[in-house]
Design brief:
Helix content of chain B: over 70%
Number of helices of chain B: 9
CATH topology of the largest domain in chain A: Alpha-Beta Plaits
Order of helices and strands of chain B: HHHHHHHHH
Strand content of chain B: under 5%
Radius of gyration of chain A: 27 Å
Number of strands of chain B: 0
Oligomer: heterodimer
Shape of chain B: globular
Strand order of the largest sheet of chain A: 1-4
Number of domains of chain A: 2
Largest sheet of chain A: 2 strands, antiparallel
Number of helices of chain A: 10
Helix content of chain A: 25-40%
CATH architecture of the largest domain in chain A: 2-Layer Sandwich
Distance between the termini of chain A: 83 Å
Structural class of chain B: mainly alpha
Largest interface: A-B, 20 and 23 residues
Largest sheet of chain B: none
Distance between the termini of chain B: 10 Å
Shape of chain A: elongated
Number of strands of chain A: 8
Strand content of chain A: 5-15%
């Protein structure tokens, strides 16, 4: 008898709950755009946030609503943009891929230190000491604790000789590293760029030479020699206008401080 | 009445903490405690489901299982059914009514189905012969106890990221060591008793 009542009770409960859930499913049904799921399927799925939305789901929802551009998925590249464009019925256009670039060249032994830092293994913690510069005398230089290395989802950032370096073959330009860098050293450059100024110090030349063997002193030599007029000097610091640059590499050759790097 | 409610609350939060004293719900405790934001999200969901499950399971036990004389062996099965349905229902409701909270809780909501602390609290309610109010309080404060444990532990784990411990302890090893130390600390509460 107990067996029968047990079966009946559990069966009745199951039936009741089943009906309840079925009704709830109808009542609480949320319209989901079929386009959203289609878009989500063709994304890279790295949840890197390079598109500016919280994860791939957020970007897919924004694309389906027409709020986001179809070429926003950086790691997905042109393939993803074309696929999304097909779903949304618009042409993709081409998004110029970007990569990260660390504006510092002060490797081990070439920069002055104020003190020996022995604390938390983090750039953010180090910037809290020494008036915002960590142990470095340079107000702008890389601290070399690798907050950016830990932040990189693609293993494209490494510490080489005490400073962060970008592996351009792996970098997809999500700029997660730039967000974590307390010195704001990392910038976005086009993947097609061939040269970059590896310094971010706005100090005058005489001050820079005292603490770093490589820092930009604003000597104007690159600006004078550049055939395309692509170099801007602001606050004793050279910058390359990547839109004007003709990739001749002449600036890297003439730089007396060897602070303009040629990318491979 | 008031005394028993205070006793139940204190027991659920401190002396008989579900995680550190009864070792229930260890899976989410270790799984989602690596960040404070996920830990709090999980805690809110657990408090909600535990309270609701305590109330509904008490009603089912009292008016369905006991009158038909099948309470002894049917409780576990019926309770699991209730919890699973409840979680499903809550998920659907939140998705429609409060999408922001739904997306904040994310994957944790369905995960609560497999949180044995929820089943634990409803079974213990029955075992201790709690009435409706006592069950409700036990469910709510049990969830609070879970919150205390997971939030404290998450704050420790966030600091552990910067700590300089031997390489062999990296990852889950150091996490288990600190959880064990936490459980030891919570044993300090075990002698506490409220005179009734």
């Amino acid at each position: 008898m107990t067996v029968v009542s047990a079966i009946i009770i559990l069966g009745a409960l199951g039936l009741l709950f089943g009906v309840l859930l079925a009704v709830a499913n109808k009542v609480f049904y949320v319209e989901k755009d079929p386009k959203e799921e289609a878009v989500r399927a063709v994304l890279a799925g790295a949840n890197c946030g390079a598109c500016g939305y919280p994860g791939c789901d957020g970007y897919a929802a924004a694309v389906a609503k027409g709020e986001a551009p179809v070429n926003g998925c950086v790691p997905g590249g042109a393939a993803a943009a074309a696929a999304i464009g097909e779903i949304m019925g618009v042409s993709a256009g081409s998004a110029e891929p970007n990569v990260a670039f660390v504006r510092c060249s002060g490797t081990c032994g070439h920069t002055k230190k104020k003190f020996e830092y022995e604390g938390l293994d983090s750039c953010l913690a180090a910037t809290r000491l020494g008036g915002g510069n960590g142990a470095n005398v340079c107000p702008a230089g890389c601290l070399g604790f690798g907050d950016c290395v830990k932040a990189c989802p693609f293993d494209a950032m490494h510490l080489v000789d005490g400073i962060a370096q970008v592996d351009r073959s792996k970098c997809v330009g999500c700029m997660k590293c730039a967000e974590t860098c307390p010195k704001k050293l990392i910038t976005k450059v086009p993947a097609s760029s061939t040269n970059g100024v590896g310094c971010n110090s706005n100090d005058k030349g005489a001050a820079v030479t005292k603490y770093c063997d490589f820092g930009c002193i604003g000597c104007m030599k690159c600006k004078k020699e550049c055939p395309a007029d692509a170099i801007i000097i602001e606050n004793f610091l050279a910058k390359i206008d990547q839109d004007k640059c003709v990739h001749c590499g002449h600036c890297a050759e003439v730089c007396p401080r060897k602070v303009i790097h040629a990318f491979n | 009445m008031f005394a028993s409610i205070v006793t139940i609350s204190l027991a659920a939060i401190l002396t008989n903490n579900f995680i550190f004293s009864q070792f229930l719900g260890i899976c989410p405790f270790l799984g989602v405690s690596n960040k404070m934001s996920t830990a709090t999200g999980m805690s809110v969901a657990v408090i909600f489901v535990m309270t609701m499950a305590s109330a509904i399971c008490w009603v089912i036990n009292e008016f369905l299982l006991i009158p038909f004389g099948v309470a002894g062996f049917m409780q576990t099965v019926a309770y699991i059914l209730v919890i699973a349905v409840l979680v499903q229902f809550v998920e659907m409701f939140l998705k429609k009514a409060i999408p922001a909270l739904y997306s904040a809780m994310g994957i944790f909501l369905p995960l609560i189905t497999t949180n044995c602390a929820v089943l634990g609290v409803v079974l213990l309610n029955t075992q201790n012969n709690y009435n409706f109010l006592e069950s409700l309080v036990d469910g709510f404060t049990g969830g609070l106890g879970f919150t205390v444990a997971i939030v404290l532990f998450a704050s420790v784990r966030e600091r552990l990221e910067f700590a300089d411990y031997p390489k062999a302890f990296e990852g889950f090893a150091i996490c288990l060591v600190s959880a064990a130390l936490f459980a030891l600390a919570f044993m300090g509460f075990s002698g506490m008793r409220i005179p009734v």
